Amino acid sequence: MKILYFTSTGNNLYISKKLGGELLSIPQLMKSNDLDIEDDAVGIVFPVYFATSPKMLRKFLEKVNITCNYLFLICSYGSDGDQNAFRIMINTLKKRGLKVNYANSVLMVDNFLPVFDMAKEKAIKDDSDIDRQIDNIKNDIESRKEYILYKKLFTDVPFIEKVLEKTMTSKYHILVGEDCIGCKICTRVCPQANVTLTEDGPVIGDNCEFCFGCIHHCKQKVLYINDELNTDERYINPHIKVSEIIKSNNISD
């Protein structure tokens, strides 16, 4: 079994590790142009961003060649939008001639700082419940269960993608404060190599995924976003090391 994953704060890498199999980072696959994936079972594990999926993931699905007998999608989400993300991905894969056999989601800490207070999120999202959800999904996959999670959908897919992405880029902005120590973690965890470090500190480029990995991993809290609910709290999955995320996402070297 191969699992293709996209992660920024570690949630989806944690899910992938719990499910087992050979783990393949989507940013690294895109970097190496290694787009031929074959196995008995192939899974895609990804986060929900504003009721859709990361831009890189959608581009990846348009290029990747997957050959398998059982294809599954697992997403992590914090409040809602998982069903819309599934709809987008399932439609994209269908156009590529691929049938999704299983799609399910895991409710985890939502790291979207303008909407969620990280202190409250960490307090209400129970690790044991998260593990229970993943274990149930793992059992489903091992038994090759056929299941697609569909709840009430918002509206048509093209409308969702255009409106939500426009909202993200126009309303929210990653800002840079002072006291940068030049650790370069922000540049190394970014899946798009969209952060560069200058003498004046980090510079955010125009190809942002809004994964907020650079913000959450900045120990000095130099990076932040407008309209944050709690500027004192950040979130990184406690079971994942920053070195693992750097290995998954560092595509600039």
From TrEMBL:
Gene3D superfamilies: 3.30.70.20, 3.40.50.360. It comes from the Archaea. GO terms for molecular function: oxidoreductase activity. Residues 172-200 form the 4Fe-4S ferredoxin-type domain. It comes from Methanobrevibacter millerae. This is 4Fe-4S ferredoxin. The lineage of its organism: Archaea, Methanobacteriati, Methanobacteriota, Methanomada group, Methanobacteria.
